[in-house]
Q: What sequence folds into this?
């Protein structure tokens, strides 16, 4: 799970809780643990054990990602506690209707 999380964060992708829990269950099934359920308690202990926290990326780096904007990126993401996060520019397009 930690290896997958590290690879995803290297791409600066935003990671939310339901995604982490689903990935944990998928990995458990691949390991033959069909009865594993990523409960809230497991999730909170896992975050604490791996030093993962939920933060809001700040700053504006790079161009606005139009494709990601259409898919409604979450404002916050899970990151390692010592990891620097970077935000993205938001699109400034506007539409005026009379």
A:
């Amino acid at each position: 799970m930690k290896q997958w999380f590290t690879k995803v964060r290297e791409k600066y992708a935003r990671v939310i809780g339901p995604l982490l829990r689903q990935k944990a269950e998928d990995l458990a099934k691949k390991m033959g643990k069909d009865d594993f359920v990523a409960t809230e308690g497991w999730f909170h202990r896992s975050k604490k054990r791996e030093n993962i926290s939920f933060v809001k990326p700040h700053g504006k780096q790079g161009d606005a990602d139009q494709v990601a904007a259409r898919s409604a990126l979450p404002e916050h993401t899970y990151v390692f506690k010592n990891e620097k996060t970077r935000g993205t520019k938001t699109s400034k397009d506007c539409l005026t209707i009379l």
